[in-house]
């Protein structure tokens, strides 16, 4: 075949050439940038944290705006997820931002199932993307990607340790999403306690095998800042919707009788570090990791479940048609097996019912015979009684007749005597 006759050049034969003048492909990165800018970006944040822990306030503080905010009730039966999408613009860059809130998280008495709606939500977004990819006429270009790029996990500032709900939830999520743990309302914990709390949290995460997102250190430009920030996790943050006058500037802060906690003051909290890492340095890496690690894992498991598999380079090429046929045969076999099982079950059930009915019929027959015997017995008794009564009646009549004759005779005798006397 012609295709096998074509010789491929070994990589050693590749040569570097110098160009005689400007050709223009050095504009490729710019082309990519302008194309991306024209297309716009999307970023999806999942906020997992107890009701009232400060999720909405932090989102408002992070994006320096006021998103829709509905306070959650503490009395919900279960956890549900509430996604809200906003179109934001900064300079000429459009960002479609989706914030997903976990409503009712941590409020139930039994918290065993609290992680499930979150896992389901993440999987559903992966599934939608996979379905779009598998379509014949797919439109990934203008598809609204709802896959979660980052999960901000809000830890309560207890100063003790992580709650089992936190550990279970993070463990269930860590293979599906980039988790950045943060200590919420960090103004409520003292500096020395916070330091110990951070160490405790990290050691608990490690001992429980929870994989949190690590800021990438393979790109030289950001390796230094990212590796120093990795050591400062989990960030202790403060959110605020108030502005306070500090010096002659209005800044976001929380005002207390003893002073103000400034959100953007790095000696007060790690808010600036979080914003830097999440939005300004690693947003693209979070998007990329979601696609190349988490989605890839979901896709692989899903396709393997559907019967697809890769073959090694030496064996026959992978054929979709064959996989489909094999899966179809397997499915039909299973269906037949199930049908046979159901038929057998039906036959057994009919037999059982038949036997039960026969048993009942026998019982009824026996009862009928018994009643018949009882009836005959009673009839005999009644007959005997009737005969006795008849006999009694006859003897009574005989005695009555005799008495009457006797009476008649004695009457006749007495009248004859009186005639004689007279
Ligand atoms: N001390 C302190 N209070 C905060 C902080 N952030 C938010 N709060 C307060 O906590 C309360 C709840 O804040 P929200 O942002 O509504 O909390 P939430 O997690 O969005 O609440 P739900 O959406 O109802 O679950 C508000 O009174 C906020 O002012 C913080 O960093 N420190
Ligand atoms: Mg809220």
TrEMBL record:
Q: Where is this region: Disordered?
A: 372-422
Q: Which domain of life is it from?
A: Eukaryota
- Which intervals carry biased composition (Basic and acidic residues)? 372-389
Task: Work out whether the entry's keyword set contains Cell cycle.
Answer: no
Q: Which Gene3D superfamilies match?
A: P-loop containing nucleotide triphosphate hydrolases
Q: Where is the composition biased (Low complexity)?
A: 406-422
Q: What is this protein called?
A: Septin
- Biological source species: Chanos chanos
Upper classification of the organism: Eukaryota, Metazoa, Chordata, Craniata, Vertebrata
């Amino acid at each position: 075949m012609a295709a096998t006759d074509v010789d491929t050049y070994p990589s050693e034969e590749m040569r570097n050439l110098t160009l005689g003048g400007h050709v223009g492909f050095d504009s490729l990165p710019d082309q990519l940038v302008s194309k991306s800018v024209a297309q716009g970006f999307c970023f999806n944040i999942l906020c997992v944290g107890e009701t009232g822990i400060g999720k909405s306030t932090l989102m408002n503080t992070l994006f320096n705006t006021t998103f829709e905010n509905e306070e959650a009730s503490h009395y919900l039966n279960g956890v549900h997820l509430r996604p809200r999408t906003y179109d934001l613009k900064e300079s000429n860059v459009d960002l479609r931002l989706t914030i997903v809130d976990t409503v009712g998280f941590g409020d139930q008495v039994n918290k065993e199932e609290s992680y499930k709606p979150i896992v389901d939500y993440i999987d559903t977004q992966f599934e939608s993307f996979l379905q779009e990819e598998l379509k014949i006429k797919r439109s990934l270009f203008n598809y609204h990607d709802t896959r979660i790029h980052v999960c901000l996990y809000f830890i309560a500032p207890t100063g003790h340790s992580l709650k089992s709900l936190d550990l279970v939830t993070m463990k269930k999520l860590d293979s599906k999403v980039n988790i950045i743990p943060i200590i919420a309302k960090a103004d409520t914990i003292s500096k020395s306690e916070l330091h110990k709390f951070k160490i405790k949290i990290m050691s608990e995460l490690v001992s429980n095998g929870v994989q949190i997102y690590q800021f990438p250190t393979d790109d030289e430009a950001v390796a230094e800042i990212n590796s120093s920030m990795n050591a400062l996790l989990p960030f202790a943050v403060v959110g605020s919707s108030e502005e306070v006058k500090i010096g002659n500037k209005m800044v976001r802060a929380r005002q207390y009788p003893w002073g103000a906690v400034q959100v953007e003051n790095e000696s007060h909290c790690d808010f600036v570090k979080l914003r830097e890492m999440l939005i300004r340095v690693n947003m693209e890496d979070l998007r990329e990791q979601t696609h190349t690690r988490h989605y890839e894992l979901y896709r692989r498991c899903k396709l393997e479940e559907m019967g697809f598999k890769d073959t090694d380079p030496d064996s026959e090429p992978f054929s979709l048609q064959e996989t489909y046929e094999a899966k179809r045969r397997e499915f039909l076999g299973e269906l037949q097996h199930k049908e046979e099982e159901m038929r057998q079950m039906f036959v057994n059930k009919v037999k059982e019912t038949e036997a039960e009915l026969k048993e009942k019929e026998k019982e009824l027959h026996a009862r009928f015979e018994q009643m018949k015997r009882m009836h005959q017995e009673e009839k005999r008794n009644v007959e005997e009684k009737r005969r006795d009564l008849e006999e009694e009646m006859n003897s009574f009549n005989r005695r009555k007749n005799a008495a009457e004759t006797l009476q008649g005779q004695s009457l006749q005798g007495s009248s004859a005597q009186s005639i004689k006397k007279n």
